[in-house]
From TrEMBL:
Protein name in the entry: DNA-directed DNA polymerase
Family, per entry: Belongs to the DNA polymerase HolA subunit family.
Reactions accelerated catalytically: DNA(n) + a 2'-deoxyribonucleoside 5'-triphosphate = DNA(n+1) + diphosphate
Enzyme's top EC category: transferase
Record keyword Nucleotidyltransferase present: yes
GO MF annotations in UniProt: DNA binding; DNA-directed DNA polymerase activity
GO cellular component, one term: DNA polymerase III complex
Length: 330
């Protein structure tokens, strides 16, 4: 049976939490590199290389090369990403290789827990791999608990009211929530209060713009309009909302323009988006018809012209654009 300290399976769908779990494993492996696992100081852990590759792209020769013992017995870490979407051949190769990795190799496998390779997790667990299960954040309460843990990690005490306000302001994206907390703590020297949150979002109202845009391109007409009215009530600058809406529609257009399902890693540069955003917007783009994308592009162009050209009623111009985009997405 495999040494569980050398093969790890990180299971979950929350991208940020999966990345953190993988990073913790990598740091631990590097901390014990070259000292027989004793964690002694003075090792060369920082020099241990990390190779990342999509599990579905692995073939036998490549996997053999990645996991073969080195002539100089150097240690290294191999991270196999998106294993849930791998085909049968790569899955079989990975499971077999994970049963007995060479000395000095730490193997980390990222898996959503579902997908066509769902049974892979059980096979790896049976072989003795360490299973790291990442929690799924689904409710507002889950996000509030996550926010509290982020503040605790920074040794900052905050009220439940502040946490609820922050979660409501940021929305569902854990990356944005974690970034907002880190920024708040840095900007206030750790003295985070309700006034600080209000000041922060007065100066970062574009977050609300992206929330509106996300709902619009997902076809959520009522939710998008409700978010728009809330943002207008708060005084969010019209131009930020218009820019966020245009960015979302153009992201859909770029993905649809590929004519195929993009690879979130290989196509990120061509699309001009981070890999996580490629994945997110690919799911959204599936609902869009080509002719509707063209109509949405016209709508956001008109809204930008109206808002930046000082239209008589920019609120109405934005409402028209949001309604049209959300309807076309439906």
């Amino acid at each position: 049976m495999v040494d569980s300290a050398r093969v790890h399976v990180v299971v979950g769908t929350e991208g940020l939490l999966v990345e953190r779990a993988v990073s913790a494993i990598v740091e631990s492996a590097r901390a014990t590199a070259g000292d027989g696992g004793m964690g002694l100081p003075g090792g060369a852990g920082d020099a241990v290389p990390v190779t990342r590759i999509r599990a579905g792209d692995v073939d036998q020769s490549e996997l053999v090369e990645l996991l073969s013992p080195s002539l100089f017995a150097e240690e290294r870490i191999v991270v196999l990403e998106s294993a849930a979407e791998a085909g049968k051949a790569p899955v079989d190769l990975i499971v077999e290789a994970a049963k007995n990795p060479p000395d000095g190799i730490t193997l980390v496998i990222e898996h959503s827990g579902g997908g066509r390779a769902k049974s892979m997790v059980a096979a790896l667990k049976k072989a003795g791999a360490e299973l790291v299960e990442v929690p799924t954040i689904t409710s507002a309460r889950d996000r509030a608990d996550f926010a509290k843990s982020e503040f605790r990690a920074q040794k900052v005490r905050v009220s439940d009211e502040l946490v609820d306000l922050l979660v409501d302001s940021v929305g569902k994206d854990l990356r944005e929530l974690a970034a907002a907390i880190a920024q708040l703590v840095a900007d206030t020297g750790g003295r985070v209060d309700l006034a600080a949150v209000h000041r922060y979002y007065a100066g970062r109202a574009e977050v609300t713009g992206f929330e509106i845009a996300d709902k619009a391109v997902a076809g959520q007409v009522a939710a998008a309009l409700e978010a728009l009215r809330w943002a207008q009530h708060r005084g969010t600058p019209h131009v930020l909302i218009a820019d966020a809406l245009a960015d979302a529609v153009h992201s859909v257009a770029r993905i649809r323009g590929l004519g195929r399902t993009p690879d979130q890693y290989r196509d990120a540069g061509e699309l001009g988006m981070a890999p996580w955003k490629v994945k997110k917007m690919t799911q959204v783009a599936r609902r869009w018809r080509p002719e509707n994308v063209a109509g949405a592009l016209q709508a956001v162009a008109a809204a930008n012209a109206d808002v930046k050209g000082q239209a008589a009623d920019p609120d109405y111009a934005l409402e028209l654009a949001v309604r049209k985009v959300a309807t076309l997405a439906g």
